[in-house]
Design a protein that fits this description.
With 237 residues, the protein is an all-alpha fold. It is built from 11 helices and no strands.
């Protein structure tokens, strides 16, 4: 809070001083504007440190009106929205940053995390694969790639990456957890498929029963009707 008090004190002192004279000095107006935007940024930074991201965002937006501070504010806005849990707004700002700096791994990691957190696994995979190729010796990035592969149900690809992980980092403690997760999800999928097959079997049995009942009714109505023909006709229907 002390930092915030000092920042606000400097800001208001600056405003009072800048308005205290009516004397026009060449270049003074642009200098005052530049300093005001810088103070907005400073106040935003203090609110950010206090984890008051809504306030930080307000001041970063004001500071972003300065052409010289714009891109720095865009990055701070992207990060603040991410900390706030506002993935949609954060995604917009990070995508804007990535268009400007397509090789920035920090931006790619943040954006990949947002994609994965919002279920955009294909987009997350593209970025994590790019990042992994940039930093092949990074254990964390490889782990993140595996998590996204599992989330996207690409189990074989995930197992391949787990093999890579263990070959590079034999003492990795998460590999076992990843494999257990794959086994668990694979079993659930097999159980679901089994339930689906059982349901289909029940439906088929009901159809067969209906066919038999239909044949029985037809037999009662006409002793001359052939049973096999009734079965064939019912199956076609």
């Amino acid at each position: 809070m002390r930092k915030l008090f000092i920042a606000l004190l400097v800001f208001f002192s600056f405003l009072i001083t800048s308005c205290a004279t009516d004397v026009l000095i060449p270049g003074r107006s642009s200098s005052i504007s530049k300093n005001i935007y810088q103070e907005y940024l400073n106040i935003g930074d203090v609110y950010y440190e206090l984890k008051k991201y809504d306030k930080a965002i307000d001041y970063y937006k004001k500071a972003s009106e300065s052409r010289g501070l714009y891109w720095g504010c865009v990055y701070k806005l992207a990060d603040s929205y991410l900390k706030q849990g506002n993935f949609s707004e954060s995604e917009n700002y990070y995508e804007k940053l990535l268009k400007r700096d397509s090789d920035n791994s920090d931006i790619k990691q943040a954006l990949a995390y947002i994609y994965a957190s919002t279920g955009k696994f294909e987009q997350a995979l593209i970025l994590y694969k790019e990042i992994e190729s940039m930093y092949p010796e990074s254990q964390v990035i490889l782990e993140n790639l595996i998590v996204v592969l599992i989330s996207n149900q690409e189990y074989e690809a995930a197992k391949d990456q787990i093999d890579v992980l263990l070959s590079k980092f034999p003492d990795n403690t998460k590999a076992k957890t990843f494999l257990e997760k794959i086994d668990s999800e694979t079993k659930v999928k097999e159980d679901d498929d089994s339930d689906s097959e059982l349901l289909d079997s029940v439906i088929d049995n009901e159809s067969i029963s209906d066919n038999i009942d239909s044949v029985s009714e037809n037999k009662k109505d006409s002793d001359n009707q052939d049973v096999s023909e009734s079965l064939d006709q019912t199956e076609i229907q």
